[in-house]
Design a protein that fits this description.
With about 190 residues, this protein is mainly alpha-helical. The chain contains seven helices and two strands. It has helices spanning about 1-20, 25-50, 50-75, 75-120, 135-140, 140-150, 165-180, and strands spanning about 130, 160. It has a two-stranded antiparallel ribbon. Helix 1 crosses helix 2 (about 25-50), helix 1 (about 1-20) packs across helix 4 (about 75-120) and helix 2 (about 25-50) crosses helix 7 (about 165-180).
């Protein structure tokens, strides 16, 4: 079963990998795959989540939290009691908001996991991208290298180098933000 899926993913992604200017270190291919995955997840979010209702709920929660903080700062017991009585309703709103945001994940989870398995089993697995030193430190790469050494043993041997997964995460984050702006999302994540 997995071989059939792997062969199908090979048919889709191997031509992209073959067009990479450096097929032995396919950073561009990972960037393109990150774009494809970001596009799929962003479109799923666009059409499966009512963005206006979600934004309205978030604003309502922010207003409630601000009122609660202000009442706590002022020591206004009456207002705090009133807001605490309203808290159960706000928890229901929060639960509804979270379940709304969960819908796209149900649709995109399996395809993304299959793409990850393909990347792990393909030539992408050996990818090393050398980052500029500033990006290396800002992305907390030394911390990720330390965590990786705990789980996988060994240590990073290429200065300022990252593997395919961290490169994918950096690319996906950037692509998602660009696509969200392009598709008219009002808020970030």
């Amino acid at each position: 079963m997995f071989e059939i899926i792997y062969d199908a993913l090979n048919a889709v992604f191997n031509p992209i990998l073959a067009m990479d200017p450096n097929p032995s270190n396919p950073a561009l291919t990972v960037l393109i795959i990150a774009f494809i995955v970001s596009l799929i997840t962003t479109i799923a979010n666009k059409y499966l989540v009512d963005q206006d209702a979600l934004n309205e709920r978030q604003e309502k929660m922010q207003k409630f939290n601000k009122e609660l903080r202000d009442a706590q700062k002022r020591g206004d017991g009456k207002k705090m009691a009133e807001l605490q009585a309203k808290q159960a309703e706000m928890m229901k709103e929060n639960t509804a908001m979270m379940s709304e945001q969960f819908k796209p994940m149900i649709v995109t989870f399996v395809p993304i996991i299959l793409i990850f398995f393909w990347m792990r089993a393909s030539a992408i697995h050996d990818l090393v991208v050398i980052l500029p030193s500033t990006v290396y430190w800002v992305t907390l790469t030394p911390l990720w290298h330390f965590v990786g050494s705990i789980f996988y043993g060994g240590q990073a041997t290429i200065p300022y180098g990252i593997g395919w997964l961290l490169w994918y995460m950096i690319c996906t984050f950037g692509m998602s933000q660009i696509l969200r702006k392009f598709l008219g999302f009002k808020q970030g994540f």
